[in-house]
NERD domain-containing protein (Priestia megaterium), 447 residues
Amino acid sequence: MAQFLGREQLESTLHSSMDLSHSDIKGLEGELKVGDLLAKHLPDDTYVIAHPSIGKYDPDFLIISPRYGFRLLEVKNWNINNISNVYSNGAMRIASNDQTRNPLNQVKKHIDEFNGYLKSLKISSLRDSYKLVGFGVIHIGFKKSDMQQKISNWNSMNRESFFKHHLFADQLGNNLDYLLEKATKYPYYDRRVMLSPTTLKQIVESVTISDEITYDNSQEVSDKLNKFDEKIAKLEKHIETIKNGNSEEIKVTIPLPPVTTEPVIKNPVKTEGSRQGRGKQKKSKLKSFIPAAVLAVLGIGAVWFFLPSVKSDTTKPTEVAQTTKKTKEAPDKQDIQNEQPVNSNIKEQDNTTEPTVSNPTYTNVSDLITNASLGDYVELKATVQQFTYDQGSGTKFIILSDGQTQVDAVIFKGTDVPFINQGETYTFKGEYNEYKGKKELIVNSVD
């Protein structure tokens, strides 16, 4: 039987607060049930930690095993009849509120923070820790067979990828440890990097239990805060552009919608040795939401006031018409989904510019291989069939597929890309080239 840390906090929150909504109660009951099953069926040397403080947001559970490392888990206590559609990227359409939720993406957000947390511990014996971090979603409200009926029309590759990271009520039994071991991007890691008893003890002793617990509404708050962060980043870029004397104008709007959430449930019980500031950033960031927006707007006004030359260039139509500098507008990425997309790769022209050129876009690998020329900068929508990582060089090697044709892709160290999951479909942008007689895509961005 595994050691279950944080159970008392969950149980205390469930029974001590009178402000819990029905969904909060259902979420807590689901977590307690899952935690008890994890503790019951995982080996004695394994730790089950509820709501560990590892960053801005806490995963529902962290599993620490000496055999395969770490697993970050999200728990959902949904009814299968309330799920109207399921998508291969893990998203699900909820019938009761007609919204799409993606618990798999929710748990993936914890991975980078947890890797940073492990590095901050500075444990010399903990090398290549990112290879030991897996993730998954546990659906305690229904069985695997219920989900199989929902996705019976999927191809085998998508089904296999989906069930690798989704577990169900009837799977929380004697085979649970094996299923959690498989829930990783690195199934063939070097067995020599497993956690020694000393290393495991150091990590467990450093982890603290969060003293704040939020539920389903936390995803909505997270999404709104992330959108706000993007607005602030655009404002900062705009200010930097003005300081550098560039007359490019970037239009940025900052909507400040009211953020309504269910009450945050505080638990006064906190594990000893907790690190100051961890587990409290969710609330503090929300409190600074509106003041930060006000400061950002005041900052723009200040820059406009103290740079009259720039101000005049952007406010007098006659002068703008005479200048040879071009301006353009950057569309807000968070605009309504039905808005027509803007191709950012099309260059605006004046009387002296070259003809407009756009980057070729391919929706399958076959068209890319048939029509693209070496040296072309292209966009390709394809599914990740295989993903490998070279530890020595830091390079990621990928095989992309459209279901029939394959092409190699490479992402060199230092290229900023999101978390890439085998079996999922992305849009890859980069240079179509050749290496040792074999065509490949040198990727520099992924959407």
